[in-house]
């Protein structure tokens, strides 16, 4: 069959009203979330000028994913997913408005930054499993794969435009004004979600929460592919992904950029991610995606190493673009393989394990903060990224099933 014969335009899925509302709201949410990386980063640098605190703030924001990820996944199968999504947006609005007011009044302190980061982290933990588990209820089965591609694309779109909006906002209206813009974007996302008609689930979950969680973990442990995929994801999340929280520090301290140019630099990551998703959406299914998952994870670590050690803006931008392309390739193929190889009865709980995996980032961010005080921010990011690439490669070498699938 020809390429055109196999191609299905993923944008066709936006014909479905409720999915379109969810998708548009998610674009706003992820864009605001990536704005926060720039806005919060410059606020921390203004308050204490510390790369270590910048890494720790990022760790605190991600910590609820580690603590609540699995529970949020179980709740998404038991209570109204719409209410969980609205609760998530409410936490985001409150957290951003609070820090905006404190900054406007000159009362903001570092502990306020940490406290609001925790609140926003709780919102992130509630959002992911509720949104992912709602997808099959919003589109017919024939469009589910396209919905998954578009769902992944929202993060890449947010990576591409969020830092630009954040950098421009900080440059034009200051940190407090940028937080107000973020709060408004979260609020509009909430209003769109309220309009969704989410069908009631058929039947009620049986058994205790603990038994449901244990059964899901047991299924994952004995699966041929899932443990290897999870270990690769943990390796990159723990050791490579913490670089996100210190990009403003690298931009300012190593490259000498202002807020606007720092936002544009970080947008290169999102641009690479977006290109990767477009290519994957426009081509037939990747043969043997397991191999691509391993190689893209290793390449992601190498690209971030180049970025961290660069003192040239062009090299740094190209490295971030390549990192975004490789990261999105890895994430999209992993999600597709997990969904296709997981029994329907376990998809919610298995998906929530990947949400918990995102909570590994605060552990890595804490280690990065400590290492930064010894080596400086660039060498610290490079050392951890090399370790992440080696870890992903080792898992790929040991789990031979990944090379057959």
Automatic annotation (TrEMBL):
GO cellular component: plasma membrane
Membrane-spanning residues: 52-76, 97-126, 164-193, 225-243, 263-281, 293-326, 367-397
Presence of the UniProt keyword Lyase in the record: no
Keyword tags: Cell membrane, Membrane, Transmembrane, Transmembrane helix, Transport
Domain of life: Bacteria
Annotated coiled-coil segments of the chain: none
Membrane topology listed for this record: Multi-pass membrane protein
Database matches in InterPro entries: MFS_dom, MFS_trans_sf, TM_effector
Subcellular location: Cell membrane
GO molecular function, one term: transmembrane transporter activity
Any Pfam family matching the protein: MFS_3
Major facilitator superfamily (MFS) profile domain span: 1-400
Matching PANTHER family: INTEGRAL MEMBRANE EFFLUX PROTEIN-RELATED, STAPHYLOFERRIN A TRANSPORTER
Name used for this protein in its record: Putative MFS family arabinose efflux permease
